[in-house]
Amino acid sequence: MNSDHEDRYREAVVTKSVDINERIDALAALMPVFKKTVEADQVIELNDFHQQVDQLCQDILALSPQESESLKPRLIALVDEIGLLETLIIERRGAVESQLRENEERHQATAAYRSQPTPSSGDS
Q1: Over the stretch 55-107, which tens digit does the pLDDT of each residue have?
Q2: Chain centroid to CA 56: how far?
Q3: Is the overall model pTM greater than 0.70, yes or no?
């Protein structure tokens, strides 16, 4: 009976580890998609991604240290990819902000030029 309980426990742990590994794979697979989207200056929605990462972290915290240790290299790689995405987003945001400032300066210059009185033909 005790052996049956241990077998079920091991099976549950293996199933949970497989599920966690699959979710790590799914999150990692999103990184190139997010990168291309950001590089194309399109908006990405990260709320669902954030929730998935949060749930993954909670599930990993529930594992024993031995169980979670095997995930460490893959998690480090995922965190590195997320860091690269963050850097790209910050860079692109800076470029967009710069373009917006330039456009605003042009708009102000054009508005100032248009608001200047034009000399009339009788002033000569």
Answers
A1: 999 999 988 888 889 899 999 999 999 999 999 999 887 776 777 777 787 77
A2: 15
A3: no
